[in-house]
Amino acid sequence: QVQLVESGGGLVQAGDSLRLSCAASGRTFIGYDMGWFRQAPGKEREAVATINSSGGKTSYADSVKGRFTISRDNAQNTVSLQMNSLEPGETAGFYCARRIRAGLTPSDFDSWGQGTQVTVSS
Question: Does pLDDT of 11 surpass 90?
């Protein structure tokens, strides 16, 4: 089974940038689409960005288009999320997961990590 570990979260001010990383161990995720999700307090976990297995195709939630960039390095077995111009409303736990079905709900992904917390102050 693939194990995913997220890192890079922290406390930042509005307008700052962060780069999150997701590293796989145990087994590679090569061959799978990958996604980043976020879950704010009291809200459902939502897809933020996805990337296909080769890294050539990405998708983003409307709220983050133009500010967030997802990328992957299959040789290093990592996927990253560059977040620019962070807003206070984006305070959330961020999670990396492997896509196993065609949808964009959490149930369409597996191998969730424990997440990394991003807190954006105003």
Answer: yes
